[in-house]
């Protein structure tokens, strides 16, 4: 496949990655006081990871100290019982929403709650009050049917798009919590998913966009583009051909900031994956050129998950697949580890049994106060992340005004004034030519004036004439 073909993904996704801008969305200036959790660092870790050091990177929001570094560096964790309580909150929000709708997929959120918690509470940088902050980390739920996981996380993190009433109207007409994530319905959802494999392919595109923009606009003294793309995919996504194609490109391009979690729970709709899917996914990904880590206990191995993320971040030149072995429907005494929890409500009796089993005495949709309080730090921390980036960008703008203006126009999706004047003109007297040749003339004319234009072709550029002559191919090392 010619490397130019690779750009089809970025063409489609660059716009998605950068098209929203902060000014359209309100920022929360009412920063409430936050209490700081106790940070114990990693207690036990896998052999490949090093012990986390004490968090030193404290930042300030207004007059209060916020351990923003805690969110960013994995150094921070609260005591395990609070982590567990938060994870169970995610599980029960999913259980309760599916139960109320009598429709949906509780199994995946129950199994993936630990990795979801660690990602949104300890790892990712985002601003819940401005879901469109440009340099946020991206998250894609490729296994879109498990969307209650994402809605529960957005709710806890403080996104205004997913309030309690939104959780209560899961899967209802015109709700902001449709049955699969939709980015135009729910701010905070980056990518609409559902067709299996599509999300991971989109995530490759997002990571590609990050790498391309970083190569183009970062300076030795200012890394203005610097974020990760995280994705959760399941067995179903792994079965799809598109995921393999996109993942092949991801390692070809060396997308080191793409970190994929493979929810290895061995169950899909029809039952055990033994029915139809027995390949060695680890070996396939190694063959593709990915760094592969296996977290054997994704249900309660919180430190294993943390260590895997830390290890993945240290690998700069390859994307990482973290295979996380989990139990679908974890906590449900009679339905876990079976297809019956994949896509149906548990039913009142089993919900009660799960409440008993996980020691959950609360009413449906309840978020315990200490969990609420713990997550509340993301509002000020997110504001700090964005404010710091804005300050960095202001400095960048002073030194590199041309590049800053160009990047801003890409972020805002604004076309340069008079761009259309670059187009060649034709008259009835112009010599006849093949449409693909005329298309090439136009594409190349536009490439000179549209800084955000990327293109691609499926191993067909020299035939359908989509080469942008003034640019080379997007390649690892010179992107
Ligand atoms: C391309 C495509 N084919 C089929 C489906 C229907 N489908 C939805 S979920 C699912 C099974 C997914 O299994 P898995 O990823 O293991 O999710 P889990 O059972 O762990 O929730 C299938 C086949 C789909 N959404 N997209």
UniProtKB/TrEMBL annotation:
Its cofactor is Mg(2+); thiamine diphosphate. Pfam families: Transketolase_N. Residues 85-416 form the Transketolase N-terminal domain. GO terms for cellular component: cytosol. One of its GO terms (biological process) is pentose-phosphate shunt. This is Transketolase N-terminal domain-containing protein. Signal peptide: none annotated. Belongs to the transketolase family. The lineage of its organism: Eukaryota, Viridiplantae, Streptophyta, Embryophyta, Tracheophyta. It comes from the Eukaryota. Keywords: Magnesium, Metal-binding, Thiamine pyrophosphate, Transferase. One of its GO terms (molecular function) is metal ion binding.
